[in-house]
Fold these 3 entries.
Entry 1:
Amino acid sequence: MSNVLQSDTPKIVILGAGSIGCYLGGRFINSGANVTLIGREKIQADVKQHGLKLTDLDGIDACIVASDIDYVTDLDSLSDADYVFVAVKSGDTVVTAKQIKALLKDSAVVISFQNGIRNFDELSDILNQNRVIRGMVPFNVINKGSGHFHRGTEGELAIEAKPGEFSDLLAVAEKSNLAINTYENLLPIQWGKLIMNLNNAINALSGLPLVEQLGNRDYRKVLAKSIKETLKVLSLNNIAVQSANNIPPKLLPVLLNLPNWLYKKIAAASLKIDPLARSSMYEDFVRNRKTEIDFLNGEILHLANKKSIKAPVNNAIVELVKKAEKLNQGSPEIPAGVLLDSIKN
């Protein structure tokens, strides 16, 4: 079915339209929003041939024909963008910001929908003529190929905004049935999300779907140790953390260490995960791309170094991920017991 473009909606450009960007953009396009996707030639070719197919754990199954999708590889469409969703990998943030600085109109609002914490500061420093705000995508999306993008975990988008701001964007999101929550201070929740994202590396190293990986107590023990160490480092740096879901961060290590039968019972009631879901870092391994480990577990090492303390658990995980990156052979598929032994201190 062809979608009728609503001319009175703001122009949204999604920069770095990979898995997350194509899912978000596709949901907006499907409701008639004015969206341009900017990304790599490979995904552009898939979208041109197959259009977009969007599915998720809640039963959404939407198909958008290629003729309704504006997917480009150049940056020209940024010149009249009202909102720019930055979805590039964290390691590309500075280079990307420098590339787009002269192209944006002064009224354009730039939203960082990226993993990690540093992106907002890096974008703000370079794009100082524009309003830059924090954003958060709490769910995972996997690229199943041929223009098919599947959301495998739950959660709602969030941006940092004062009451009444960005009403036009929020209206587009509401029409797309893709809610955006607003917070006057999103940073504590971003730290909460980073804590949850510490599992990205463990999932990638395991090579398993998230449900299967988290169903193994030894993998959960690794994650519990990583989170416990992280909470200590954040506390020493006087960094406030707020839950990115409905589980207080301090309780996560306790929950993760529970016996399998009890963990599964509690997790089933508090955390919805599709059997297909995997972490984005696992997808990086499969596609031989550089991961965002420096902006997740590596961020904790940076903070630990500022206080002249060690963070051996997160350090071991970073080293294992970087070793796998160098090998370029996909996930190392490290067994749970082996991984647990490798991070004991």
Entry 2:
Amino acid sequence: MREFISGLLHRHGDEVPILSHRNTVTHGLLRADVLAHAARFEAVGIGDGSTVAVQVPPSFSQLEAVLALWSIGAQVISIDHRLRPAEAHALHALTRPEFLVHPGGEVAPGFQERYGLVVERVDGLPASTPHRLVQFSSGSTGRSKVIGRSTRSLIDEVARFEASEGMPRLGERLLLLNSPAHSFGLIGGLLHALAAGVHLVFAASPSAPDVLDAARTHEVDFVTGLPFHFDLLASSPDRSALRTVRGAFAGGELMPQDVASRFLAAYGFPVGECFGTTETGALTMTVGDTVRPSVGPPMPGITARVRDGLVEVALPETPYLSSDDPSRFSGGWFRTGDRGEFTPDGELRLLGRADSLVVVRGNKVDLTEVEHVLRGHPLVTEVVAVGPSEIRAYVGTTSSTLTADALTAWCTERLAEFKLPQHIHLMDTLPRTPTGKIIRNMEPLHASYLQAHLAGNNGVK
């Protein structure tokens, strides 16, 4: 990993810009900052094979710390800065880091340039595997799993991004709305930018005004983000702010067709799709006229198949470090948990999660169909439907007049009787994981609903 990071840091000239927020960092300045961080880390005992949990908010400091740790051979355990201490401690117990890196002062909202970082030595263990990046599954459908990425897998993923048609290239400005603390933002954002000479731009916050201001100020060429970001932009259209943009795609979570359609209508160009998992990295890419549920062809170097209706990807080893899961990885194939099929022209079409297919009174029901019908209501902003024996729908809405009875009537006109939700719970907004994905696990969903209800939140219906 040392050689890989050194090569990326020295690939472009000193004056080539790499990061911009309020100020701009060039490749030369980044190299100097990474070197200074590395010297400080080595001075406290971090070195080859050390395990370091990094819990730093999105910032230049977070990016420089990760690069510095990799440059001295450490294993980086990436922990979302928004987790509460109890949540972070649970992940520490799973991974046993020797060092913790975190901000020394108060954490500010939004993207910041610099934090004073504290390095804390704790009672942990050195790396027992050659993995350089340790992450955790999103937890949107259950308990998070510990995932390891090797140097080879990271190098291969950066190469896939470089070889993919339509990706930002040398000298182009990419407005990166995905968090660089997570897989896509770190690898498809930072590492690809270092390799290709792309100029990364960060918004002060994920709000539409700040995103549009960053796009306008820096005259960006490309935008990537979660569907959440494109939904915000579609709801606050400003064509002039994105007048220089040549392309965009969603990465980190699948884009609903209605969000993509509204964004296209507002700005005049489509949002493509980058599909992948934390376990595998990016798998497919399409920047142009995506016809969902297609998520494009497999990226260069990816071998994928559909077996028993589920998408599988060839991997040289299990991605899980805490325990093997033979239902997910077996015989060199990782089962993504997504149902899909390949089109005649080689594009992957996703047909919903494996756990979205439930049986109600002997009838098979695809929960994504129920979600699609509910999302079609003009007062509904987001939906999750869960099973398994009866269907419950959790619906986000800003309306104070929408009722569960009205939504039941809406569904009755559009769904067979056995597909109807038995319970519809309305909330201001649905709970999300730290990565921004809507939680789909029944227990935390209902607990969030009850908590809002008991707190007397008028948004709970």
Entry 3:
Amino acid sequence: MTTADETPVLAAGCVLWRREPGGGGLEVCLVHRPKYGDWSHPKGKLKRGEDPLAGALREVAEETGYSAAPGGELPTQHYPVDGRPKQVRYWAAEARSGRFVPNDEVDRILWLPPGAARGRLTQPRDRELLDALVRRFERP
């Protein structure tokens, strides 16, 4: 039997990307969460019964203001938060239309090339997701 403390918190998110304006190189969107003072990929807890991909796209829209076209699934992350296990599923997602408006949860976003994004990300686990996305673009 699983106790409430052992039941994982389920979350989902995306590594949101676009081409630089003018059709240039790859850019990745990072979100700044003032509550934690960190830079990360858009993500959040799933609503009860919510499909993980639908939740990931909802979180992207809520945190960045952008709609996104989902691509392939990226590695799932597992880590503890406040003594409970957390499971976060991620997808690569191409930004479509939208506009960022600061809010209580996310006060800034940045569009950065992968190298600069890698240096800005707070958590090493988020760098692993970025690396997984970049590998997808390097395939012939």
